[in-house]
Design a protein that fits this description.
mainly alpha, Four Helix Bundle (Hemerythrin (Met), subunit A), 6 helices
Length: about 150
């Protein structure tokens, strides 16, 4: 894979994430406080999609940089930490994305009827600003690769 191919891959993933964020805000309407189980499941799925896209890019960047990603039971946590250690993510972004990683784990291992808006809302409220930070971080990192 070339640097240009890596850039194009990340741009395509970011386009997908932009579409996911759009869909989140079709369902999660400003000032709405009551959601059906189906609406919460849709919001949760889109939050999961958001984080999955971020992981896809981080994994691809680390592989491009010849870093091994071992598929262990903790590889998701290791991927995020390695991305911060390599300077792809700032401490602020690492901490913010850690919340989405925790949610990813919850989402995978829970039932949709156990979702609660008060727990999803902080993830939804901050999702666009986290994406903007991530976009800048990825662009700057790829630009810095020789």
């Amino acid at each position: 894979m070339t640097k240009q191919q890596l850039r194009k891959y990340c741009e395509a993933e970011l386009d997908n994430i932009d579409a996911v964020i759009y869909e989140i805000f079709v369902v999660a309407v400003l000032d709405k406080t009551e959601y059906s189980t189906a609406e919460l499941a849709a919001i949760a799925t889109f939050i999961h999609n958001f984080y999955n896209g971020i992981e896809n890019m981080l994994k691809r960047i680390l592989i491009y940089e010849k870093n091994e990603i071992k598929e262990t039971s903790t590889w998701h946590k290791h991927l995020l930490k390695s991305s911060a250690d390599k300077g792809i993510l700032s401490d602020e972004l690492y901490n913010a994305l850690s919340n989405y990683l925790s949610f990813r784990h919850f989402f995978i291992h829970s039932y949709g009827f156990s979702l609660r808006w008060d727990e999803l809302r902080p993830l939804v409220d901050g999702i666009q600003s986290r994406l903007d930070l991530f976009k800048n971080s990825v662009k700057e990192y790829i630009d810095s690769i020789s």
